[in-house]
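Lab notebook: predicted structure, single chain.

Context: the supervisor wants predicted structures on file for every construct in the current expression panel, including those that have not yet been purified. This is the next one on the list. No modifications to the sequence; it matches the entry in the shared construct table.
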Amino acid sequence: MFSKINEFHLDILKEIGNIGAGHAATALSSMLGHSIDMKVPYVNIVSFDEVTERIGGEEAIIAAIFFRIEGDAPGSMFFILTIEQASKLLSEITGKSVRFNEPPYDELAMSALQEIGNILTGSYLSSLADFTSLHLHPTVPAVGIDMAGALMNYGLIQISQESDFAVVIDTIFLEGNSVSSTIKGQVLLLPDPDSFYTIFSALGAPLDE
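Prediction complete. Output recorded below exactly as produced.
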């Protein structure tokens, strides 16, 4: 399957990502009461082994929101931030210093993190559904702060024995066009084995041609 993915497929995924980012930015700006811009500079499809390496290795502490996708193209979705970027983002949103050093974590900050992750991943999923006309529905999201290996294994346990690849959507938050306010995260889309074929066929770019 991986060998059939080309630049055209990645361009489609990036376009979907940018539209999803636009929807998410509008929703977040409304929630926060000030302008938030979002960009998707990079989209790629990588192996599971590369996923954890891209976020600092299995022992890196990360914040993650996870849910399952149900419907015509089942799969899993993550929104991932390094602990430093999560602290920065939540400090901006809650208006007070947030430091995810050790549990118990601030309940307001965790709730805000889950809401942001829900808006962001939901916007990407809606964009994908609009492009493909597939019926795609998220389950209730779970939020956690732990080592990357533990959180990823929690989300991948249902499919890791069958599927080998994930769509990585780099996401940049930019407040007031200030580089110092830039916050970087990643959205991971992990379609179940047959769902890659379903998605790209629905996009008019089937992998079996």
